[in-house]
Amino acid sequence: MIYSWIAISIVSLAVAYSMAEICSAYPLAGGQYSWVAVLAPPRYARAASWATGWFMITGILAMGATNNFIGANFILGQVQLTHPAFVIQRWQVVLLSYLIAAAGVFLNVAGPHLLDKLSKAAIIWNMVA
Predict the structure, then answer these.
(1) What would the pLDDT profile of 9-65 be if each residue is shown by its tens digit?
(2) What is the DSSP letter of 26?
(3) Is the per-residue pLDDT at 108 higher than 90?
(4) Which is nearest to 37 in space by CA: 15, 21, 53, 24?
(5) Three-class SS string for 61-123?
(6) Do 117 and 110 meet the contact criterion of CB atoms below 8 Å apart?
(7) CA 35 – CA 5 distance, rounded (Å)
(8) Torsion angles phi and psi, residue 27, rounded to 5
(9) What is the pLDDT of residues 18-33, one digit of tens each?
(10) Pick from 16, 55, 54, 23: which is nearest to 39 by CA?
């Protein structure tokens, strides 16, 4: 586990450094699809930029669904630890995933003023920890 964590950290840093280099050379607001449009050969720039944008939005949506699923499994796993007789059902995971997604939507739509306080609390928590 330790060696794989170190290896993955090195590879992730290599990706981050290369993205930072591209960002410093081409400071565009769009991100990856804008960089592809600038750096790709003119003949392929539009199609490659379009494909990059779609891969990015697909990845972001999949990441959101995965995070909700992981959160639901974590919460239900904690319930199962404290109540050994409890058996996790698939419908419970799905329902809790939807609840986590709805809580995220509610927090972003109805409570943006709370996000600033939450961010400050998270920074303080990380510094103290």
Answers:
(1) 999 999 999 888 988 888 888 888 899 999 999 999 999 999 999 999 999 999 999
(2) S
(3) no
(4) 53
(5) HHHHHHHHHHHHHHHHHHHHHHCCCCCCCHHHHHHHHHHHHHHHHHHHHHCHHHHHHHHHHHH
(6) no
(7) 30
(8) -75, 80
(9) 888 988 888 888 888 8
(10) 23
Q: Which of 30-34, 83-87, 93-97, 103-107 has the lowest mean pLDDT?
A: 30-34
Per-residue CA distances from 13 to 6, 33, 39, 87, 106 (Å): 11, 21, 22, 40, 34
Name the 3-class secondary structure at 52.
Answer: helix
Cα gap 16→22, rounded to integer Å? 10
86 token code pair: 């409890």
Comparing C-alpha atoms, which of 76, 60, 66, 72 is closest to residue 100? 72
Side chain identity at residue 19, one-letter code = M
Altogether, the residues listed in the chain come to a count of 129
| pLDDT at residue 31, rounded to an integer | 80
What is the C-alpha to C-alpha distance for residues 89 and 22, in angstroms, rounded to an integer?
A: 46
Cut 0.70: pTM above it: no
